[in-house]
Amino acid sequence: MVFVSWGAWAFTLISSVVARAILRRYWTSIRDIPGLLLASFSTLWQVLQILKGYTEVETIRLHKEHGYFVRIAPNEVSVSHPDAVR
Q1: Which parts of the chain span the membrane according to its record (predicted)?
Q2: Are 72 and 41 within 8 A, CB to CB?
Q3: Nearest alpha-carbon partner for 68 in 49, 85, 47, 46
Q4: Are 40 and 24 in contact (CB under 8 A)?
Q5: pTM for the full model?
Q6: Beta strands in 1-86, from DSSP E residues, in sequence order
Q7: DSSP-derived 3-state class of residue 44
Q8: Mean pLDDT across the stretch 23-46?
C-alpha cells in the first residue's frame, strides 16, 4: 500500500484547478472576446451577480465598457447588437 502525504494531494488539487482555469481562459474558440477575467474561467461571476440581483445592470455596464460581444462565462457570450444575433 502506498501512502501519499496531504501536501502531495493538495499540490495535485491546486495544479489541476490552475490547469483547468488556464485551459478555459486561453484554449477555447472564444478566447478573443473581451470580458471579465473571472468570467473567462469560472461561472462564479454569474452566481455572484444573481445573488446581488443586478445581473442585467452589470451586463449592460460590461457592454458599454467592452462593446457588442462580452464573455460572461467560460462558454457563454452576451451579444447586444440585433444584427449580430443572426
Answers
A1: 6-23
A2: no
A3: 85
A4: yes
A5: 0.78
A6: 69-73, 76-79
A7: helix
A8: 91
